[in-house]
Every structure is written in structure tokens, then in C-alpha cells.
TrEMBL record:
Positions that bind NAD(+): 9-14, 35, 102-104
Stated name of the protein: 4-hydroxy-tetrahydrodipicolinate reductase
Catalytic site: 158, 162
Domain Dihydrodipicolinate reductase C-terminal: 134-269
Species: Pseudocalidococcus azoricus BACA0444
Transmembrane segments: none
Pfam families: DapB_C, DapB_N
Subcellular localization(s) per the UniProt record: Cytoplasm
Quaternary state and interactors: Homotetramer.
Length: 269
């Protein structure tokens, strides 16, 4: 049987790609879509796929109510906004729908609350800051490099319609480095910022993160290590959102096998 999937934020840039990918993947089925606009219209007609007989629902709840009556698991994929994703995930769990989340911006308190809720429901939830396999490889390389470098900074670059900063991927990268128990960037001088924020945000273990927002960008990240006489730069560039889709499909297939909330694509590879 095909896995039924609800796509929330279906008319967004990532949502459109997810809908197209589901239509092209034999073991997945587009169960329903949600978006703030286009209610009642066929999603396929709006994104150039022809009629799919799946109309845009105004609310996630009505799809969750229907999904709760299904005899097989239903997965929700959410690429919306930090202000709404928390409620979407709680609602999905409450109705027994398995969430796969690409939206970033959830606070640590919200993540903990969702983790507790997932534990009580004995359900899998996947929070994936970045679905790109290339980004997972970059992060693993950064962990290796951090054993030999004491100075590191992160630069993340995204399109100017991204609502949160720093990106969830940059925060995750900094957290992964911080978990090594090493304090980075020992002070060499007393620094003075003539403009607040000139040195970027400071993540745990004194790792600086710099965010750039410009039209023309999609999603890019650099992790730059420095030592006397050398610079080691790791960089990942996105040129097409299709690069995220293998990770999205993997997460959809995996989430129903889980019993708790997991953060990061690397945890399910």
C-alpha cells in the first residue's frame, strides 16, 4: 500500500517540490494539502501538474480528523513558518499523524514539549533542519576538523524570504561542535563592537554564527576553521531545492517506524 502524505505549506517553494516528489514516488500517495491561499482549488492545477483531484484544505485539522480514521499510518510534511509549525506538530501527534518537519525556528522549550508529547503518544516525529545529504557530510567533516582546530566560525546564507535567523542548520552545526565539550575561539584581544552584532551571534562554546539574507540565494553554509598559517573551509551550496527531496522521502518512510522525536537527518541515515 502507498503511504498517505499530507503536505502543509503546499504552495510554498519547498511545499511544491514535496508535492511533485510524492506524485513521482510509487510508494507515496498525496492524501491532502494545506495552504493559506488557494482553498478549494486543485493543487495539481496550481503548480503545473494537471488535475490531481486533491484540493487545498483551509485547515490542517480537517485532514487530521480524516486521517485518524485511516487503517494505515498517515504522515504530515510541514514546510511552513516558525509561528505555526509548533501547533501543527502538536495537532498531528494528537490525531496520530506522523510529523516530518523541515520548518526551522522551534525554540528549545518547544522542542522539549513536542518530544514529551511524542513520548506519551509513543509516536515518531522527525525534525530535520536540513534534508540535504551533502549538508550531513559537511557537518561530519566539521566534527572531524574540530579535533585539530581551536578557532571556527559559521556563515549561513539564505534567500531574503527566510523568516528565522540563524538558520536551523547553522544552529545544529554549532550544537554538534559544542557537544564535543571543547570551547572554541580563545580570546586574543578585548573585542569592541562599534555596531552591535558585528561579530555575529554567539552559539554555545563561543562559536560565532553570521547570517546573510539576499535575493538570488537559496541555502548555503560555510564552516571556516583557522589556525596559524592555514584556513580550512567547508562549504555546501544549494542550486535547486530538488536536492532536499531524497532526504524528505527517506524521512517519510522512516518516521512511522519510530517511537520518539528525533532531530537531524544524520540520525536516520
Amino acid at each position: 500500500m502507498s503511504m498517505p502524505v499530507i503536505v502543509v505549506g503546499a504552495l510554498g517553494k519547498m511545499g511544491r517540490e514535496v508535492v511533485k516528489t510524492i506524485q513521482q514516488t510509487p510508494d507515496l500517495e498525496l492524501y491532502g494539502v494545506v495552504d493559506r491561499t488557494g482553498q478549494g482549488e486543485d493543487i495539481g492545477s496550481l503548480i503545473g501538474l494537471g488535475t490531481l483531484d486533491v484540493v487545498i484544505s483551509p485547515t490542517l485539522q480537517e485532514l487530521c480528523v480524516a486521517a485518524a480514521q485511516e487503517k494505515q499510518p498517515v504522515v504530515m510534511v510541514d514546510f511552513t513558518h516558525p509561528n505555526s509549525v509548533y501547533e501543527h506538530v502538536r495537532m498531528a501527534i494528537a490525531y496520530g499523524v506522523y510529523p516530518v518537519v523541515g520548518t526551522t525556528g522551534l525554540s528549545p522549550a518547544q522542542l522539549q514539549d513536542l518530544a514529551d508529547f511524542a513520548d506519551k503518544a509513543d509516536m515518531g516525529v522527525l525534525i530535520i533542519p536540513n534534508f540535504s545529504i551533502g549538508m550531513v557530510l559537511l557537518q561530519q567533516a566539521a566534527i572531524q576538523a574540530s579535533q585539530y582546530f581551536d578557532h571556527v566560525e559559521i556563515i549561513e546564507l539564505h534567500h531574503n524570504q527566510k523568516a528565522d535567523a540563524p538558520s536551523g542548520t547553522a544552529l545544529q552545526t554549532a550544537q554538534m561542535l559544542a557537544e564535543l565539550g571543547k570551547t572554541f575561539n580563545p580570546a586574543q584581544v578585548v573585542e569592541t563592537e562599534h555596531l552591535p552584532g558585528a561579530r555575529g551571534a554567539t552559539a554555545p562554546e563561543n562559536i560565532h554564527i553570521h547570517s546573510i539574507r539576499l535575493p538570488g540565494l537559496i541555502a548555503h553554509q560555510e564552516v571556516i576553521f583557522g589556525a596559524p598559517g592555514q584556513i580550512y573551509t567547508l562549504r555546501h551550496d544549494t542550486s535547486d531545492r530538488a536536492c532536499y527531496m531524497p532526504g524528505v522521502v527517506l524521512a517519510i518512510r522512516k518516521v512511522t517506524q519510530l517511537k520518539r522525536l528525533i532531530v537531524g537527518l544524520e540520525k536516520i541515515l
